[in-house]
Write a structure and sequence with these properties.
- The chain has 148 residues and is α+β, with helices and mostly antiparallel strands.
- It folds into 2 domains: 3-64; 68-145, no CATH class.
- Helix content is 47%, strand content 25%.
- The protein has 4 helices and 6 strands.
- The chain has helices at 3-17, 22-42, 45-65, 68-80, and strands at 87-90, 97-102, 106-107, 114-124, 127-137, 143-145.
- Strands 1, 2, 3, 4, 5 and 6 form a 6-stranded antiparallel beta sheet that branches.
- The longest helix is centred in the N-terminal third of the chain and has 21 residues, at 22-42.
């Protein structure tokens, strides 16, 4: 591993440990996961930084903007959503809207747990954010977003 990767990882770790809000915690955790994935896939500083940026956005969105209602709707989309077809909802409290298009389920080779990829389009405070995620079923049967 190069020094830049270790620096990004250390900075992200410090960010997570000093966070006060769910969004910041989610962003920090997403940044770490994204940096790790970027380095593993691209083996370069650029890939690490891109991974950290994407992970930060997804982590912040899930950690801060998605409340319990939204997480339940997202779990429902992963559980019962028809592959390739969008499901959407509007949060009655925040007004944020989400559209999720899940893909067919598959078995993760490492954990043997069911996983699904999905495209998520969120409109938060009038700003559209699009991301691609993977969720795998945990031991309790809930879908958990994975850091890619």
């Amino acid at each position: 591993m190069n020094k830049m990767f270790l620096s990004v990882l250390l900075l992200c770790s410090l960010f997570v440990s000093s966070c006060a809000t769910k969004g910041q915690t989610g962003a920090g955790a997403g940044a770490i996961g994204g940096a790790l994935a970027g380095q593993a896939i691209g083996h370069s500083t650029e890939a690490t930084l891109i991974g950290a940026a994407v992970g930060t956005m997804l982590g912040y969105m899930v950690g801060n903007e998605m409340d319990k209602y939204d997480r339940e709707q997202l779990n429902h989309s992963y559980e019962r959503g028809v592959s390739g077809q969008s499901s959407s909802w509007r949060n009655p409290d925040s007004g944020n809207t989400y559209e999720v298009r899940p893909q067919p389920a598959y078995s993760d080779p490492a954990t043997r747990k069911p996983c699904r990829q999905a495209e998520i389009i969120a409109v938060i405070n009038g700003k559209t954010e699009r991301t691609y995620t993977t969720a795998c079923r945990d031991d309790n049967g809930h879908w958990q977003l994975q850091n890619q």
